[in-house]
Amino acid sequence: MSITELGRTGAGPASDGGADLAVRAEGLVKTFGTHRAVDGIDLEVRPGEIFGVLGPNGAGKTTTLRMLATLLKIDAGRAEIFGVDVAANPHMIRQLVGVTGQYASVDEKLTARENLWLFSRLQGIAAPRARHIATELLGQFGLEDAADKPIAQYSGGMRRRLDLAASLITRPPLIFLDEPTTGLDPRTRGQMWDTIRSLVTDGCTVLLTTQYLDEADQLADRVAVIDRGRKVAEGTPDELKTAVGNSTLQVQLAEPADVPTAVEIVRRVLGSEPILSPEQGRLNVALDQADLAAEVLIGLRTAGVSISSVSVAKPSLDEVFLALTGHEADDEHEAGTEENR
Amino acid sequence: MSTVIAPVRETVRAADRVAAARRRVSTAETFSQTLMMAWRALKKMRRNPEQFFDVALQPILFTAMFAFIFGGAIAGDVQSYLPLMIPGILAQTVLTTCMATGTQLREDMEKGVFDRFKSLPIARIAPLAGPMVADLVRYTIAATLTFGMGLVMGYRPGGGAGGVLAAILLAIFTGWSLAWVFTWVGTIARSAQAVQGISMMILFPLTFLSNAFVPIDTLPGWLAAFVRVNPVSHLVTAARDLANNASLSGEVGWTLLASVIVMVIFAPLSVRSYKRHM
Ligand SMILES: Nc1ncnc2c1ncn2[C@@H]1O[C@H](COP(=O)(O)OP(=O)(O)O)[C@@H](O)[C@H]1O
Ligand SMILES: [Mg+2]
């Protein structure tokens, strides 16, 4: 729990300069029936940064984003975008935010070009300019060849790209991306990352959600970790890693059968529980100081446990998540399904 | 020859955007957004075989089929059945067409694109109003095809072009008013399938328990009683009066009154329950 507090320092509502923030949310709450899907979340997103909301399935990421985007009513708390109150001025917010949802929100029966045309014209862009923007965006997102085909024939990656293109028509200063790479293959995922980075170069601010720890690590300047509707930590990816322990000792045992012995030794030497990796016979041990690695290794050697490889590294966000929430990021059962019903 | 050099993209400045942001949608914007939504509805109609069937094929097929099946039995021969039947088909086609409005709205609301509409700075009513405007085009096509097919089969309306036009306009107006019922169903039902089912249950008795295809005096008393109060019967009679005799009978008045009543009840209901989804 000390981690939680540490993560929250500097994240409390600032008393001054609220208008300077891209997003400022205080105590956001959304209740579905009796289930509090979002249970008092504070967020502060600075202009020009990529802010990641990291959490497992059902954590409340989408719900939070939808409230900020005026798609869902805010049950309690308040939110401002560039100083504009979300609940009081939804029409203004819609002019400032481009939303790319978790599922492609484009018209399946229209072509990519028709979709972009429709969304441009709806936002009051004159016909010649709308045509120009459509062509430009189609080029920018590598969709020229499929521009006049119905979306139904598109791959998942193409849909995502079109969806993002549709959110950029008016070049909004703030862009929400809800799990932008979920379900994409690694190559398409890398392209999406590049695109997201280029948005920030243009002067936009990006608020994205993800279940992927490496994605938050790769993209985000700052990350809020949320779980079961609450924020459990916040900071830069590096800060979060440091919060969990300065480093992690990874030990690969030669004999998986030695695991119980090794666990016992770690307990005795450090007084803490090692994390068992999914791979057979691997232990991850969080260390306050890298020196302690030696103590553990000596202990193992004395007990005759043989080691096939060993490394000391900064902890991955996976370990951060485990340490913060007490369960693994991809552990859907624990993460929310039982509460969903 | 000048080459076009892509301009350096200017940086997005949030403060300028906030200053430029409008607080609400103007009436002019609402209007043009509604027209864009109508454009979308028509584009989709052309690509949707089911709707194409309702609008284009049904008037043609039903006119031919009904004429040959019932013509002899009811009116002695096809020729004398046509003046009775064509206005009936007209009413039926327009009603079937307006049933699709609810199903489509529901489908839209279930799709991801509705989220996009909700997140855009557009009038909340545009996604509902657009299809209603597009419907006017659909009714016009359906009504024109029905009369066209009648003419091909030898129907010579006694009311002349003016009478036929008046009958078509009346049918369009009635269809458009009744569409609000189906729109309302579209906003309250659980799924597009449910909308379809409920709409059918409303539509079938309305069209078939009317005087659309058979004269009322051939029906048993209890049925005739329902048929007589059925608004569709009034529409059919009114359309017959207009198309065959160019006479502006009281039936026209009854039809208009019934349509207005339906609209006054169901348009606000629809808009209210639709707004809950928006
Ligand atoms: N419309 C809704 N009605 C009822 N429950 C919902 C609804 N939307 C989300 N939930 C519930 O709220 C919780 C958070 O959902 P969500 O925000 O979609 O999580 P995430 O995006 O992090 O996966 C989940 O338990 C989910 O089942
Ligand atoms: Mg989600």
UniProtKB/TrEMBL annotation, chain A:
GO cellular component, one term: plasma membrane
Record membrane topology: Peripheral membrane protein
Ranges where the ABC transporter domain occurs: 23-253
GO MF annotations, alphabetized: ATP binding; ATP hydrolysis activity
GO-annotated biological processes: daunorubicin transport; doxorubicin transport; response to antibiotic
Entry-linked SUPFAM superfamilies: P-loop containing nucleoside triphosphate hydrolases
Keyword Cell membrane: yes
Taxonomy, superkingdom: Bacteria
SMART domains cross-referenced by the UniProt entry: AAA (SM00382)
Keywords attached to this entry: Antibiotic resistance, ATP-binding, Cell membrane, Membrane, Nucleotide-binding, Translocase, Transport
Entry's localization field: Cell membrane
Signal sequence annotation: none
Stated family: Belongs to the ABC transporter superfamily. Drug exporter-1 (DrugE1) (TC 3.A.1.105) family.
Name of the protein this chain belongs to: ATP-binding cassette domain-containing protein
Organism: Microbispora oryzae
Lineage: Bacteria, Bacillati, Actinomycetota, Actinomycetes, Streptosporangiales
